[in-house]
Amino acid sequence: MKTWDSPSKLLHVVVDTPKGSPIKFKYDVANRAYTIAHVLTPGMAFPFDFGSVPQTLADDGDPLDALILLEAPTFPGCVVPVRLVGVLEAKQTQRGRTMRNDRLIGVSEESRAYREIRRLNDVPDLLLRSIEHFFVAYNEARGRRFRVTGRFGPTRARRLVRAGERRFRESARDS
């Protein structure tokens, strides 16, 4: 699957974990199936669909992560075309190692509730802070530190996706 939908210029995001899920799912390439990656602490659930961007690689070796603003959950494996509105740039520390672990933010093209959002600055501050808090708490519960280092708009987010596409191509070429 391509990273971008050519005619619409929307970003493809493959949902790994649906909104409201207390379980983090991850796609197992070798078995071609979703597996349980982690069960969240009681009372915690994903605030929105969370997934990955095809044909990209982040600094952690996984595809780029993306959160999809959409009022209802979809399901693992669902491809959601999104309008990229920004990125939460972040650093994650685990086992003494710190690396970038950004979260792209996109709005589903089908969303009614979030359709007016074009840039990260359009996301209500309380909602953005609650999303940041979720990622901090989720990682803390797993013994990791997650720190948002900046909030940026769609231009910076698209640049990160292009860099992720380059890493993916280079990795495929080296294999």
Tell me what you see in this structure.
- With 175 residues, the chain is α+β, with helices and mostly antiparallel strands.
- 22% of the residues lie in helices and 38% in strands.
- It has helices at residues 125-141, 154-174; strands spanning 4-5, 10-17, 23-28, 33-39, 49-52, 65-69, 79-94, 97-100, 103-108, 145-152.
- The strands form two sheets. The protein has a five-stranded mixed beta barrel.
- The two termini are 19 Å apart.
Q: Strand tally, please?
A: 10
Strand content: 35-45%
Rg estimate, integer Å? 15 Å
Determine the structural class based on helices, strands and strand pairing: alpha+beta
How far apart lie the N and C ends? 19 Å
Instruction: Indicate the percent of residues in helices.
Output: 10-25%
Main attributes?
alpha+beta, 10 strands, 175 residues, 2 helices
Structure described in brief:
By secondary structure, this protein is α+β, with helices and mostly antiparallel strands. The chain is built from two helices and ten strands.
Detail the topology: elements first, then pairings.
Blueprint: E1 4-5, E2 10-17, E3 23-28, E4 33-39, E5 49-52, E6 65-69, E7 79-94, E8 97-100, E9 103-108, H1 125-141, E10 145-152, H2 154-174
Parallel strand pairs: 6-9
Antiparallel strand pairs: 1-2, 2-5, 2-7, 3-4, 5-6, 7-8, 7-9, 7-10
